[in-house]
Amino acid sequence: LAQVSGNALLCLSPGAMSRAVANAAPQEEGEGGARRSGWGLLVTAGVGGTLVALYAVATPFVTPALRKVCLPFVPATAAQIQNVLKMLENRSGSLVDIGSGDGRIVIAAAKKGFQAVGYELNPWLVWYSRYRAWRDGVHQNTKFYISDLWKVSFSHYTNVVVFGVPQMMPQLEKKLEEELECNARIIACRFPFPCWIPDHTTGEGIDTVWAYDLKHSRGCETKSLEITPETES
């Protein structure tokens, strides 16, 4: 019986075989086309998802360059951190880092006993800073906010650290002078303020740090009241 079937297959005419192959080909092509279409959709979705993810990650880093005053993320060096901590010796009170980046200064200050706060516009850096503070065990002494520095009041801070650029320093100098109390100390890294005369300077090159005591820069000195004892009549 198998032999008969085989002979029957072999005895098919050329025209019949052509029709049989033609009838089978569309089915095979349809299955292959469906598989190719499915893979194409998967590849398209994968590429699209990757591009969206890259856009979401890159945008917070690129956006500052499009602002009127560009404040890019440049990590503080180990020498800069040590110079900042040196300027904070014998200081107390709250501390704020303007443009805190990945939180290095805030975390280092918290380890020295400060209640330290960082303001940063890049949400990825803020979340990473919070993770680093938790990892280093100082999350209870630190806070990080996603905020534009020009929309924040720094009036309740007594220690201010700034990693700025020359274009922003004049405007920031005016803002801090209007908001801070006389007992505040402002520490500038990489670039000094244009008008204030620093009370202390340490480091060299890009690691230079300038410290300004606002009571001297502003000229507000505490005057002691002289009490004249009353004479008995």
UniProtKB/TrEMBL annotation:
One of its GO terms (cellular component) is mitochondrial membrane. GO terms for molecular function: protein-lysine N-methyltransferase activity. This is ATP synthase subunit C lysine N-methyltransferase. It is found in: Mitochondrion membrane. Keywords: Membrane, Methyltransferase, Mitochondrion, S-adenosyl-L-methionine, Transferase, Transmembrane, Transmembrane helix. Gene3D superfamilies: Vaccinia Virus protein VP39. PANTHER family: ATP SYNTHASE SUBUNIT C LYSINE N-METHYLTRANSFERASE, METHYLTRANSFERASE DOMAIN-CONTAINING PROTEIN. InterPro entries: FAM173A/B, SAM-dependent_MTases_sf. Belongs to the ANT/ATPSC lysine N-methyltransferase family. It comes from Pardalotus punctatus (spotted pardalote). GO terms for biological process: methylation; positive regulation of sensory perception of pain; regulation of mitochondrial ATP synthesis coupled proton transport. It is a single-pass membrane protein. SUPFAM superfamilies: S-adenosyl-L-methionine-dependent methyltransferases. It comes from the Eukaryota.
